[in-house]
Amino acid sequence: MSSRIVVLGGDGIGPEVTAEAVRVLDAVGRKFGLRLEFQEELIGGIGYDKAGSPLPEATLKACEGAAAVLLGAVGGPKWADIPVKFRPEQGLLAIRKALGLFANLRPVAVTPELMNSSPLKPEKLKGVDIMVVRELTGGIYFGRKERTATSALDTCEYTVAEIERVCRVAGRLAAGRRGKVTSIDKANVLETSRLWRDVATRVFRDEFPKLTVEHLLVDAAAMHLLSRPADFDVMVTENMFGDILTDEASMLPGSMGMLASASLGDGPRGLYEPIHGSAPDIAGQGLANPAGAILSAALLLRYSLNAPEAAAAVEKAVAGAIAAGVRTRDIAARGEASVDTKSFADAVLRHL
Question: Is 219 labeled as catalytic in the residue annotation?
Fold first, then answer.
């Protein structure tokens, strides 16, 4: 029986990077005897343009019946002036909610060969291997919103159950890694954060007693992420804080183009996407770095298809391409030659 993967290229560079990730998935599937079937659907701005919705009904139906979803990116200035409910980002928020994907996993590791691509000093980057777990379907992004001529309102709300389940994901991950979890909040100011800290403290104490647990305020976490990044193992936080901190963390390896993510729920089906945006300024020019999309495909193999050996092979192939000196423009040092999107994926395929 084949595993059906819905591919949502989306907008900007999204279709370019997902195309290369699909090539790698197809190759690793043949190598490891996995039967993979790919189905392309619309999301984001192109979904609005072609079907009148950033999340067309056909797309949602296809995703609900799929083994996994691979997404590129959504958004762009083209859709900046349309009504909010039709904007590309609403499609992404809606699919996460509809599929019950409440935990966003974003691994952040520094490749030794790319240390000079980071704005941080190399000595700060040694040993950096972080897994950020971001709560994905609650908080201010999904709260009540209101706008008048003179004011605006965005409500941040969390339930005990929402916090418990994402902390359990973080706890299980930390137990299989280095045994440390850092919970991030703003408990000195926000009532939702005081609830977050109380619930996180209880879950980790009662259900994961062997873990080392650290609580940090989000502003302190942002500082320590740059001053002592190698001290972090698993970080868990609410939706907006996680969104901001993971973009900050992307500068540790030197480029957002290198980072992958997995959005998971209670079952094996997940949505996998690079953390970068649609980058419309370079779309169609072959300049995009497909590493984040390819590494997202590796997470897809690991978490949705239960194929850890195939996932590791893809990750090793990306590392091999980097070690061999293959660079897209965003990770090339000054004066260093760079390759286009397809050529980078070709190098990954050779190492695979």
Answer: yes
Annotated catalytic residue, options 48, 141, 158, 303: 141
- Set 198, 231, 247, 340: catalytic member: 247
Q: Is residue 108 part of a domain?
A: no
Q: Is the pLDDT of residue 342 over 90?
A: yes
> For the chain, what is the domain count?
2
Judged on CB neighbours under 10 Å (0-12, 13-18, 19+), 153 is exposed
Catalytic annotation on 243? yes
CATH number at residue 67: 3.40.718.10
pLDDT at 251 exceeding the cut of 90: no
Three-state secondary structure call for residue 73: strand
Full domain range(s) for residue 274 = 1-102+254-352
The dihedral of CA 232, 234, 240, 243: what is its sign? positive
Catalytic, out of 186, 233, 303, 330: 186
pLDDT in tens, 54-107: 999 999 999 999 999 999 999 999 999 999 899 999 999 999 999 999 999 999
Asked if 186 is an active-site residue, the reply is yes
Q: How far apart are CA 181 and CA 123, in angstroms?
A: 23
| Residues sharing a CB contact under 8 Å with residue 189, sequence separation 6 or more, in sequence order | none
Instruction: Please identify which of the residues 50, 126, 145, 219 carries the catalytic annotation.
Output: 219
The reply to whether 341 and 272 lie within a common domain is yes
Is a pLDDT exceeding 90 seen at residue 135? yes
Phi–psi pair at 2, nearest 5 degrees: -85, 155
Active-site annotation holder among 11, 185, 233, 243: 243
What's the number of CA atoms in the CB half-sphere (13 Å) around residue 273?
A: 27
Q: Which two tokens stand for residue 55?
A: 């999340």
